[in-house]
């Protein structure tokens, strides 16, 4: 059980700064997911918490204690790696017991703890096997087991599910969430998959180019993206963005309260609206028009792709059974005014 | 790593199968024939060898010749020379493996000033065979008083750029996460080396051991220089020492028996390590 505090942490590799000062406060028992595209520095941040990378400046605290200079083994953490990193020559039992063995735990206690973890992870029948005799999902469980038996203060996950197939990923995702809830161990989880982030996180950190763009509960981040990047990264299909040339041109008609905000802003403004908030009618206050290009029926829902006169793409999410116009026809879309987000020229939200 | 197939990759039938076997058998006969002749010569008496035609089937002097070779030999008992060779070959093989695996570990897993410089220095010595540096090496060994000693036979040959290079290449294929997982698990570097890296390298160690043992066993020039006392001679150079100088008569049966005896240990090592080597191959995974 522990809190983690990441205080203005920066990381430089040689001359290049890859993390430009990140602050995160993690409460005891909280499940935090760091999400972002590849190369955004999320894994580096995790590895700094783990002690596998040095911290260039700033401070990492675990349970109120500065750990910048501590070795990983002295930080009371356990880590699950993307490729599992199981010791190939050791049995499942030995893999899970290795950390305890080094710590000098009594044999009887090691056996007890490993058995308990194996039971929890349904690995009881596999304890004598070598990692190569296990499936991907089982290896993943062993990696989890290795973390659990040590009863760490903090769990660190580095994209633990990316090597699994889609179905297994969904299953393991639920298992990880349930396990973390049962154990109540503070967890930091890195992923590039926004679905994982949405489903697992108590709070998520959206990172982009070495900066934590937004920190918050998944639904808050989804509904209230603070930057254009967050709007575009979280949600599938992503938020639609339309460059605004004038407050109202032919392809876009915005209600007066929004037009006022646009006028007050400096520089060009981008309008953002989520696909599910648009409908192919003129009932909402904010209206857009475009030519229908193609339709993707997904069963429960249908994605309608349109293009505006200015050449910008718009996606509208419709019910699966809705009647749709022909491809190539001009359509009107609209959305309620409260669903419209405005972003300034630096990508930050305009309220 | 690939598993060895139980049988051939594609099952062959008919004439092709017989032809390949015939070719292989012919090849084996050609290679084995001189060894067979040596064996035959080691089982007959001296007059039988010198009188043409050469005998092609073993005679009845087997025990006489071999016991004479083992116990008394010509300059020194062969048993003694076999022992010397074994000490030298094991010393070189084990020493080389220990030193090179440790230096490869240092070069791959630690960041220290001059890391690359050291690696390239080691790598450069690859290009210098024993013969090139034999005079200065002799000088050094002699000044250390290592003439006619096991340390003189072993230590000057113990550094191995090849083995270091091989272990380095192997360590670089071990995923970094393994080292990191061990760090998180609390393993200090040497613990990681013992518990994880060493067991994972056992295939490479077995393969290298075979190669290095034979390298050590077959050393000729260096033992010839460093040992003058017949009781410190190794078997490979000892055979040459058995050849008579001047008008003496060569005791060919004993020399041949010695040759056969000199051949046996490498064969035993290859065959016994081959099993381990293949099992290592099948068991190993990354």
UniProtKB/TrEMBL annotation, chain A:
Domain of life: Bacteria
GO cellular component, one term: ATP-binding cassette (ABC) transporter complex, substrate-binding subunit-containing
Organism: Oricola cellulosilytica
GO MF annotation: an example: ABC-type transporter activity
Alphabetic keyword roster: ATP-binding, Cell inner membrane, Cell membrane, Membrane, Nucleotide-binding, Sugar transport, Translocase, Transport
Residues covered by the ABC transporter domain: 4-234
Location within or outside the cell: Cell inner membrane
Secretion signal, residue range per the UniProt entry: none
Originating gene: ugpC
Example of a GO biological process term: glycerol-3-phosphate transmembrane transport
Name used for this protein in its record: sn-glycerol-3-phosphate ABC transporter ATP-binding protein UgpC
SUPFAM superfamilies assigned: MOP-like, P-loop containing nucleoside triphosphate hydrolases
